[in-house]
Amino acid sequence: MTTVIAYHDVDDVDHWLSSPKREEVFGSLGITVRTFVDPEGSKRTGLIMEVPDMAKLQEVMASEAGAEAMKHDGVHADTVVMLVES
Fold first, then answer.
1. How many CA atoms lie within 13 A of 26 on its CB side?
2. Domain 2-84 -> CATH class
3. pLDDT per residue over 2-59, tens digit each?
C-alpha cells in the first residue's frame, strides 16, 4: 500500500467535499481517501490516499473518466500536485 498526498484548488469547497465522485472513481480501485481543506478559507483542498496499485491510480488520473470526475468536482486540473511516500 502506498500513501499519497494530493492537493489542488477547487471552484467550491463545499461542493467538492460533498461530491460522490471520489468514492466512485477511487473506491472502485480499492483506494481509501481522507479529505482536507485549508483552514484559512482558500479554495485549496487536499487528500491523503492509501493506494494499493499506483499504476491503476496513474491510469485513472490520465483517463477521460478521471478528467470528467475532476471537472464534476470543480478541481482545477492544472493545480494538482501529488506526493508519494518515500
1. 20
2. alpha beta
3. 999 999 999 999 999 999 999 999 999 999 999 999 999 999 999 999 999 999 999 9
